[in-house]
Write a structure and sequence with these properties.
The chain is 50% helix and 9% strand. It is α/β, with parallel strands linked by helices and 379 residues long. The chain folds into three domains: 128 residues, Rossmann fold (3-Layer(aba) Sandwich); 65 residues; 147 residues, 3-Layer(aba) Sandwich (Rossmann fold). α13 links the parallel β7 and β8. α12 runs parallel beside α13. This is 2-hydroxyglutaryl-CoA dehydratase.
Length: 379
């Protein structure tokens, strides 16, 4: 890492190197999360109505986002690490005082400390609200951490009530997305579903309580169900499985879902925060795939295998497996998925992403996969 007075060259030239003025430690904090699919809506609600702070909204990511994160990262760290680090750099440049890193089921739980160290070495001043440091501890420990890092006057009663509302918002967003993925590929008016989703997201983003969330959900679902569609008698159905971050985040998987929807495919994806965090039951899932799995293979492995088997049993036309390059748990899943493919005679497309993955190569593979499963269905 270059010294503060040294002119940066090469990849480090992408990374801002400066100290921001110190802020009044007692002023209202500006809090930023990483980018993660449509969950920025929940992050905003959490910051404003649980932490009682100001939310720093990030714009749509660009190529520079991942380039900055990659420049400050080890070459061999997984792509989600680089995406998140780039997000944090942009958030700090936008004035964030506090960065939030939630614990994850894999190495994500260790990322917060390393990312904090990298950013401090780059000259940034901020607080890191890293929930991995209190994983498995009591609710009081979570509250104490939030008070220490963000808001010492945090209301316990209001915070708990709004945290429950945030969980409901997660479930609502995921239920809406499930319906969107099932129907959007069959739209008869180009762009109608995307416009409806933007309206729904704006409505949900404006919610300030549980009642607002419930009403926004009712309006959003009703609007989707009223849009004109043309569903074939036997549509092409594809199930998406894979790693916790890449399978969910559109920026990380290069908007793979949109590519399939534009081909008229009916999509399903079990991996989301509701299924993996709020309602997750590892023993039950493992029993459902006992002929393939006898033990816990990793943070998302059981869900990946269970979802793939479920899609195969329902007669889906294909499965797409998404992961970041070098993701060990999902690499371990691949031989099992190949067994499922053979047992149920269902094609599986394996896609691995790193910071250099481009749309061009991805589009070619997706189009070839779609042509294959469409021809098989026609036969």
């Amino acid at each position: 890492m270059p010294d503060a007075g040294e002119k940066q060259t090469g990849p480090w030239a992408l990374v801002p190197k400066r100290k921001r003025p110190k802020r009044n430690r007692h002023s209202r904090k500006k809090v930023a999360f990483l980018r993660y699919g449509y969950y920025d809506i929940v992050f905003k609600f959490f910051v404003e109505h649980v932490l009682d702070a100001d939310f720093v909204a990030l714009p749509e990511p660009t190529r520079k986002t991942i380039e900055m994160g990659s420049a400050a990262s080890n070459d061999f760290v997984c792509a989600p690490f680089k995406h998140i680090l780039g997000d944090y750099m942009e958030a700090l440049e936008l004035g964030a005082d506090v960065l939030v890193q939630f614990t994850g089921p894999c190495r994500l739980g260790y990322y917060g400390e390393l990312q904090e160290s990298i950013l401090r070495d780059a000259g940034y001043e901020f607080e890191m609200l890293n929930f991995a440091t209190v994983t498995g501890k009591s609710l009081q420990d979570y509250i104490s951490l939030c008070k220490k890092k963000v808001n010492p006057d945090l209301s316990l009663t209001q915070g708990v009530a709004n945290m429950l509302a945030a969980f409901k918002m997660i479930e609502s967003l995921d239920a809406y997305n499930d319906l969107f993925l099932r129907l959007a590929g069959h739209e008869t008016e180009a762009g109608s579903f995307e416009r409806a989703r933007k309206t729904y997201f704006a409505d949900m983003r404006a919610a300030s309580c549980r009642h607002d969330i419930d009403e926004a959900q009712k309006r959003g679902i009703a609007a989707l169900e009223q849009l004109p569609v043309s569903i074939p008698a036997d549509p092409v159905r594809v199930g998406i499985v894979g790693e916790y971050f890449t399978a969910v985040d559109a920026a990380s998987n290069l908007d793979l879902e949109r590519k399939f929807l534009d081909m008229g495919v009916e999509l399903y994806r079990m991996m989301n925060l509701t299924n993996r965090n709020l309602r997750y039951n590892e023993p039950n899932l493992r029993r459902s795939v006992s002929e393939y799995v006898n033990f816990d293979m990793g943070p998302t492995s059981t869900m990946t295998i269970a979802a793939a088997k479920n899609y195969a049993e329902q007669g889906f036309d294909g499965i797409v497996h998404l992961k970041s390059s070098g993701c060990t748990p999902e690499i371990d899943c691949m031989p099992v998925l190949q067994r499922i493919s053979r047992d149920y005679r269902i094609p599986i497309l394996f896609l691995s992403y790193d910071s250099q993955t481009s749309d061009t190569g991805l589009d070619t593979r997706i189009e070839a996969f779609y042509d294959m499963i469409a021809m098989r269905k026609a036969r």
